[in-house]
Amino acid sequence: MERSREAEVRERLADIAGDDPGPAEQALLGRLIRSYLAKTPGGVDRLAELLRGGDCAALREHAHALKGSASNIGAAGLASVFAEVEHAAGEGGVPDPDLTLGRVAAEHAMVCEVLEKLAAAYAED
Predict the structure, then answer these.
(1) Of 55, 79, 97, 121, which has fewest CB within 10 angstroms of its CB?
(2) By three-state DSSP, how is residue 88 classified?
(3) Are 73 and 111 in contact (CB under 8 A)?
(4) 34-93: per-residue pLDDT in tens?
(5) What distance in Å separates the CA atoms of residue 122 and residue 88, rounded to the nearest whole number?
(6) Cα angle for residues 58, 16, 74 (degrees, 5° grid)
(7) Which domains does the chain have, with CATH numbers?
(8) How far, in Å, are 4, 18, 73 from residue 1 at the CA level?
């Protein structure tokens, strides 16, 4: 049975800060979430440019960085899509931009919904 995106994110955050994070850990998690939410849209925009530009080396590197960011926050489904792009580019191919970006947008939207919910719980005072 597939775990929910929220369960995946919560598990990763617990890996980072423990099951019962104190104020300092909660602040760290809040910063991590806000950073991800702020930076990822620009990264996805750049991915779109690279998918349409055909530079496999730059696409592979960028997809790798996005995969790492998604993994760090516990977004396994999104990281998987980025991993597919990274692999294809590493093999000299460019996945279909529209299909790939549609998958990224769908996964990213679900992850952001979870993260926005959790960000409120880890809001800094």
Answers:
(1) 121
(2) helix
(3) yes
(4) 999 999 999 999 999 999 998 999 999 999 999 999 999 999 999 999 999 999 999 999
(5) 37
(6) 50
(7) 22-120 (1.20.120.160)
(8) 9, 25, 21
